[in-house]
Amino acid sequence: AHLVESGGGLVQPGGSLRLSCAASGFNLDYYAVAWFRQAPGKEREGVSCITGSGGRTYPADSVKGRFTLSRDNAKNTVYLQMNNLKPEDTAVYYCAAESGNYCRGVKYDYWGQGTQVTVSA
Asked: Which residue from 107, 105, 100, 89 is spatially nearest to 38, judged by alpha carbons?
């Protein structure tokens, strides 16, 4: 059982990307899913989290109004839509699944391998 991120790449400032986090070997319905990012030389930062039901999301202040989390439980996948990207969004982005409906941030059962996002002109 594991998570696989995809959708990263190189984009110009102001551009958009959509990252996917697909679960394999387990049912993502029963997990809250969080996204994190880590830039070179910096600590890992929480980006956003979506509850298992998809009813609520919790974006960080740094991405509020620009990044949107959604999920398609039929496809066992969570999506991070990133708009109006800035150079400071450059990082490796990771998704992680936490058992239960709520974004508690206590213990993540599964982590993805990460996908690189680079925002540069």
From this structure: 89
